[in-house]
Amino acid sequence: MANTKFPKGFLWGGATAANQIEGAYLEDGKGLTTVDLMPIGKNRFNVLLGNIDSLTPKENEFYPSHEAIDFYHRYKEDIALFAEMGFKSFRMSIAWTRIFPNGDDESPNEKGLQFYDDVFDELRKYNIEPVVTTCHFDVPVAVIEKYNGWKNRKMVDLYERYTRTIFNRYKDKVKYWMTFNEINMLLHLPFVGAGIVLEEGENKLQTLYQAAHHQLVASALAVKACHEIIPDAQIGCMLAAGSTYPYTSNPDDVWEAMTRDRESFFFIDVQSRGEYPGYAKRFFKDNNIHIEMEDWDEDILREHTVDYIGFSYYASRCISTDPDILGDQTEGNVFASVKNPYLTTSEWGWTIDPKGLRITANQLYDRYQKPLFIVENGLGAVDIPEADGSVNDDYRIDYLRAHFEEMAEAIEDGVEIIGYTSWGPIDLVSASTGEMKKRYGYIYVDKDNDGNGTLQRSKKKSFDWYKKVIASNGVDLA
């Protein structure tokens, strides 16, 4: 371990989201959330984008989140498996609608609060540090019906009350927090990111950036509350990251790549620097966007910046201004990308680029000079059990090994990285497709896309490999 590039106390672990693992979607008083309206199949992406005709589940659709992998009833079994792997941290989210079922209830739901007390106690029993996202793609449906989601400034007050409630409740159990998961997804998946249903003829950019402002102010108020209530805690933001490469050295391609990156950096610029950057102000001016603010908003943003930058990294992106090249795009991921001739792709069309993790980490650290936390990364693949039930996922081990090597190089470059939580340490519902077939985990869950299966947990080959990586603090990647 003397040769490790990873710092002492590095937070190895795994990452999940409440809506993709918990199930029990209306149990113990929980309210309906956006993801509970997202079926598997052809209609899912329409809902992700906000093209939705009903805010109640339909009888003829299958909604994967309603049961998910039933972590709600099986958390002790799952956490014991995480502990066996040697997890130092576990990134999870709190479902807003377990605490305030309608988002604006007069008092919190005690059964929901107690559930997370129990989960945190179980994690603490094994010395696993909870890393908690306060809002991970689960806007309460009731506030969409009542206030039009994050279009409405009222959401700032509701979110502040919700976060103050959970900070006060769990101040002795949680020391790492994040505000909004992949906050930049608001621009690409407005319904899941902000509970936004766009109306016909509505000025889309005006609506999305006004909602973004509301979330940025709400995030700053959560930072303020966290620092007041839990002075020894760290609270960060969370970005869906991945550098954009110009397809050629044509200056137009280079500029377009920078513009695409800025679209995402905009959110983190505000959350970590405390003000709107000049390029954003010009974008607003050029696109006739007027951000309505309260007199104190700029002070709130400036005075309450985040402690660290959390980010997901699955793939780099590539862009061209040549229409012929621009038409040849990868199949996967929300972010449009032309095919990079130097890289391969996963079964779902996501570009596989380990060095891109090093590039992205350096880019973020150069830009913000704040500690980084890699809170999502992994390979979604079809895992086929052998006759004896084992899963020989060498392809996942190869993917992760290559990314860990580049993460170590980033640390050697001088980038401060405090931890790594791979996405889906246990198989879970895919956010983008709703599938179970798209598996990320070290732990196999017996369930198929149609909801059939025993939900039995079993270890894949990668389980023991990751256990070895953690035990050696990244030295033994063989």
From TrEMBL:
One CC-aspect GO term: cytosol
Gene Ontology process terms (BP): carbohydrate catabolic process
Pfam family, any one: Glyco_hydro_1
MF-aspect GO terms: 6-phospho-beta-glucosidase activity
Keywords: Glycosidase, Hydrolase
Keyword flag Acetylation: no
PROSITE patterns: GLYCOSYL_HYDROL_F1_1, GLYCOSYL_HYDROL_F1_2
EC numbers, comma separated: 3.2.1.86
Active site: 376 (nucleophile)
Keyword Hydrolase: yes
Domain of life: Bacteria
InterPro entries associated with the record: GH (IPR017853), GH_1_N_CS (IPR033132), Glyco_hydro_1 (IPR001360), Glyco_hydro_1_AS (IPR018120)
Family of this protein: Belongs to the glycosyl hydrolase 1 family.
PANTHER family: 6-PHOSPHO-BETA-GLUCOSIDASE, GLYCOSYL HYDROLASE
Protein name: 6-phospho-beta-glucosidase
